[in-house]
Amino acid sequence: MEKKKDSNKLIANNKKAFHDYFIEDKYEAGIELHGTEVKSMRMGKCSIKESFIRIEDGEVIIYGMHVSPYEKGNIFNKDPLRAKKLLLHKKEILKIEGKIKEAGYTLVPLSVYFKGSLVKVSIGIAKGKKLYDKRQDIAKKDQRREAQRDFKIRNL
């Protein structure tokens, strides 16, 4: 029997989302791409740092996701910042929409990756952090870093 590889190759990551928001729930969505955008993604030419997600007319759409034009492409290259539709089941969209209507919740893209030959986007339902929450996270990271440094020194 042939084993099927379930490899996820990361294309883009949104570290700022974890810094600015508490991620409550995560979903995996497909993305509707055209022509040479997939080839550009295979080369890692994608950024989701400034992107955001909205639900309009029962469809989930990502805005501001930058997919650089494929160098060897021609007239078939699309606008790098065009809005792209995310592919989710209707039940998931309704569930997400209900959660977002609560005060303070938003949808943020977390990462873009290949799952087999398909491009997937990990999206999260998030609640914004206050300044003091961010300070607490930074302090925890510093403590963890100090502990690891001390552990390394002791083991040498």
Structure description:
- Pfam families: SmpB.
- GO terms for molecular function: RNA binding.
- With 156 residues, the protein is of the alpha+beta class.
- The chain has one domain: Beta Barrel (Small Protein B, Chain: A).
- Helices cover 31% and strands 37% of the residues.
- It contains four helices and nine strands, in the order E-H-E-H-E-E-E-E-E-H-E-E-H.
- The chain has helices spanning 15-20, 37-42, 90-100, 131-155; strands at 8-13, 21-31, 46-47, 52-56, 59-63, 66-67, 84-87, 105-115, 118-128.
- The protein has a seven-stranded antiparallel sheet with strand order 1-8-9-2-7-5-4. Strands 3-6 form a two-stranded antiparallel ribbon.
- Strand 4 and strand 5 (59-63) form a beta hairpin.
- The protein starts with 7 loop residues before the first strand and ends with a helix.
- The model has no long low-confidence stretch (mean pLDDT 84).
